[in-house]
Amino acid sequence: MDLLKSLSRAVVDLRREEVVRLSERAITEGIPADQAITEGLADGMRLVGEKFTAKEYFVPEVLAAGRALYAGMDVLSPHVTRAGDRRGTAVLGVVQGDYHDIGKNIVKLMLSAAGVRVIDLGKNVTVDRLLQAVEEEEADVVGLSTLMTTTLVTMAEQVDALQRAGVGAVLVGGAPVTAGFAREIGADGTADDAGGAVDLFLQTMDRVRE
Questions:
Q1: Among 1, 83, 141, 149, which is most buried by a count of CB atoms within 10 Å?
Q2: What CATH number is given to the structural domain containing 102?
Q3: Range of 168's domain?
Q4: How many whole angstroms separate alpha carbon 137 and alpha carbon 118?
Q5: Structural domain includes residue 148
C-alpha cells in the first residue's frame, strides 16, 4: 500500500508529525494497526538501521527516527486487535550494558497482539533479574536483544545462565545477531525482523508448551 510506504519513508526522513498524520490516516482508512506498525513503522526503522550500518546515519538520526516511530506507535497501539486466549508468557529484555529498546518494544507490541502475555524488563537487564522474572512469572520463553556488538559477550553469558537454569527456550535478536551466532551461544533461534521474531516466538512457545 502506498500509504504504508509513505509511513515507512516518514520514519526514515525523521518527520515525526508526518508519521503521526499518516498513522491517523491509516486508522481512518481501515488499515489494520498491526499491519501499519510492521509494514510502515517497523519497515522504516529497518531502513534506518541499514543507513546506520552504512554510516549514512549516526546516533542523532537513529534517536530522531525512534522518536518518530514511538509517536506513530502511540497512535496505532490502542487499535491493535488483542487476541482473546493467552498463548503463554514471554519475558523480554535488552541485555545488560545496552539501552537500545526500539526493536524490543515493537516485538512486545506484536506479541501482545498475538495473545502472548509479555513481561517487559526494559533495558540494561541483569541475568539475576531475568532469572527472577522467569521464576516469578513462570515464563515459557525469554527474548534477549542487543544493538551493540560490545554486548554480544554478555548476551552469550546470559543465554548460558538461562539455559542452565532450565528455561523453556531463549531467543535472541538485534542488528549484530546472526543465525550462526545464535547457534554458537546455544540460543533457540533468532529472526531477521520483528515480524519473523513474532512468528518464531509463537512457534517456539507452542513447542515448549506441548
A1: 141
A2: 3.40.50.280
A3: 89-208
A4: 10
A5: yes
> What does the alpha-carbon distance between residue 178 and residue 182 come to, in Å, rounded to a whole number?
6
Of 54, 79, 104, which closes a domain? 79
Q: Is the domain of 55 the same as that of 107?
A: no
The answer on 95 and 75 residing in a single domain is: no
pLDDT digits (tens, 9 = 90+) for 172-207: 999 899 999 999 999 999 998 877 888 899 999 999
Say which residues have a Cβ less than 8 Å from residue 78's Cβ, sequence separation at least 6. none
In sequence order, what E strands does 12-104 have?
89-94
Asked if residue 84 is part of any domain, the answer here is no
Neighbours of 131 (CB within 10 A): 18
b/e burial code for range 134-151 (CB count within 10 A of at least 16 → b):
beeeebbbbbbbbbbeeb
The grid coordinates listed for 188 are 533457540
Q: In this structure, what CATH number is given to the domain that contains residue 21?
A: 1.10.1240.10
pLDDT of residue 149: 92
- Cα 11 from Cα 82, distance rounded (Å): 25
Label the pairing between strands 89-94 and 117-120.
parallel
pLDDT digit string, tens, across residues 155-175: 999 999 999 999 999 999 998
Residue with cell 500509504: 3
Distance CA 91, CA 100 (A): 17
